[in-house]
Amino acid sequence: MLETIIQGILLGGLYCIFALGLSLMFGVMRLTNIALGDQIIISGFIAIGMATVLGFNVLWIGLLLLPIAYISGFCFQGWVLNRTLSKDPLPSLVVTFGLSIVIQNTLQMVFGANPRSLDVGSLSTAGVELSPSLTVGVLPLIIFVSAIVCTFGLQWLFAHTAIGRSFRAVSDDREVAELMGLSAKRVFATATGLAFCLIALAGWFQGMRTTVSPSDGPSLLLFAFEAVIIGGMGSFWGTFLGAMVLGVTQQVGFHYDPGWGIWFGHLVFIVVLFIKPNGLFPKTKG
Amino acid sequence: MTVHTQHINMTRTPLPILPISLGVLFLGTAITMPFWGQAYWLHEFVNISCFFIFAMMWNLLAGYGGMVSVGQQAFFGLGGYFVLAMGNLAGVSPFIGIPLAAILTAIMALPLSKLAFRLNGGYFAIGTWVIAEVVRLTVANISIVGGGSGTSLTAFRGVDRVFRQHMTYWIALTCVVATVALILLFLRSKQGLALQAIRDSEVAASSQGVDVIRMKLAVYVVAALGCGLAGALYFASNLRISPDAAFSVNWTAFAIFIVMIGGVGRIEGPIIGTFVFWLINHYLSDYGTWYLIGLGGLAIVMSLYMKDGLAGFIHRKTGKDFLSIKRIYRSK
Fold first, then answer.
1. Does residue A132 lie within any of the structural domains?
2. What stretches pass through the bilayer (chain A) (predicted)?
3. What is the CATH number of the domain that holds A181?
């Protein structure tokens, strides 16, 4: 049982990185990125493509992926999503939903329907022995530590830097922020650039840890969303804890019956939404 | 101090005569189609009707109610499964089962709305998707209706095939006419005005005495009824159901496409959109992934460059509303 819970917490680390990308975009510009899951999957495929075509080392691929992701996020927000922002959520939802369909089918066409994974050599089997009966994989541990670093980094960015201040300013009141000389569109583009870095990181890890296949995207989006809502909107540590709760619930569910693991995770989300709509760990002030 | 009260006299635009007479002409041709048309025309009409009704409901929800849902497939699938369960397990004829299934689906929407309404805007959209997934996974684990691999509708055994096809067709036609007529009348009514007021500003509408929560709930339940009807009809016509097909997010994707092409927040939008969708589907669906990439891309382009769709484009060019629900000021 202890092993299941630890596995769940480590899985939660991956979900946390998914969720931070969603949370960041929603927090700064109230934009819901329905294509999030598919963007994670396409990042995984790009990493796999780089590994097979260019023959790069996994670490180099990760380092290369981040700037590409930042630039594409920045441009995507600047050229496309900024046009859809208004009080009406419909245009941005339709655009990201349409993008999700385009990405899924493009991947299907280029790579076929088979799941693929990113080869990490001996890292995939390496483990740390916590006690004679309990070994934890090194890779999941790395992902978990990265999740903590990302959460801490975002929280710090929002609280203590000029970029974070501009994020909070445009989120609180776009017009006033613009009167103070901020370019809201530029701030939005920066936020999406950062969110895309998280998405690329998530895809890179997903490709290493398990497999990616073109139709996986929507379920990743739903896990990210559930983590955000379970944790409570508006605080990154809340999202982190929400992801832990979701990961543990799913693992416990899988432990009892493989057919019901995901369902069990959804159920916890529904119960939380019904009983505590503000999440289990609502923010004091982030 | 004297208080001036200003009377604003608002009148409904007259019921659109030309489109209605065109509709009656269409209806006359359509009713008799089983006697002169080919069997596969009937089948295709039933399928397209399901897409159309589903899209009308999505338009009502998103375009008039301001609730953008990505989870309407929950109700589509439930409608299908209710027809199947009643037919296979209780021996209810699917002809009676179709309307019953729609009503049962609407009843299911009441508890589900309690969850969905805790979320707003974009998160409402994903929340409805989670609900649809939960329903799909639950149904996939109920072995009496075929579990994960689905099952066939056996209730039509012993029913003459031609009679079944004709009846299904006429039911579909009735549903289409009823959907258009009811939505048109509803949106022209006082409640319809209240609904559009909510979409434009919840706070302002509520300050004018509109019961926002109740109105949204009513729309959500009516949309569930319509989606359930579409699903019931679709699976009664296709005779085979599985959780993955019934609760596929593609249903909503097609509805969004139809509404965005035709024009969101306009009654004639889904009518035009369904026609375009039918053409594209008929001629290009063999291209598989390219076809879907095209649909997704077109939806993106429409929402960036032509937000009000083809119906809005025609309105701007000709200045005409073909199915008007507008009210106009008449100064005294």
1. no
2. 6-28, 40-58, 64-81, 93-113, 133-158, 187-208, 220-246, 258-275
3. 1.10.3470
